[in-house]
Design a protein that fits this description.
Elements lengths: L9 H12 L4 H8 L3 H21 L1 H4 L3 E8 L15 E8 L4 E5 L8
């Protein structure tokens, strides 16, 4: 299974993936991107299926307890700390207990687009 035969443009697919990660509902994402809600719901379902498929194929990555969180990296600076701190890079991470840490820099950690 994959999204190779998807009729949506690559740009729209990436935008939908961003919305998926930010937990934007299918209906809201459809409204923002001017798509049918059923199209977005199907895309979200296929993404979930791919996640399950990859988790089953690579059980050592997601087997057992896994922690998910965002954090901010950057030098010590005066001013606001945490969300919205200037000069800090937000990072999304997965931590497998007693195992590896997987991180990806993200543009922002907001739950809404």
């Amino acid at each position: 299974m994959g999204l190779k035969r998807c009729k949506l443009s690559r740009k729209v697919q990436l935008r939908l993936l961003e919305f998926f990660v930010l937990e934007v509902t299918a209906r809201s994402a459809a409204d923002v991107l001017d798509l049918q809600a059923n199209t977005v719901a199907l895309f979200y379902r296929k993404v979930r299926e791919l996640i399950v498929e990859q988790a089953a194929a690579n059980e050592e990555l997601l087997g057992g307890e896994v922690e998910v969180d965002e954090s901010y990296f950057g030098g010590v600076r005066k001013g606001k700390r945490g969300r919205g701190a200037l000069g800090k890079v937000p990072v999304f991470g997965l931590l497998k207990r007693g195992g590896k840490v997987f991180v990806v820099p993200i543009s922002d950690a907001k739950a809404t687009p």
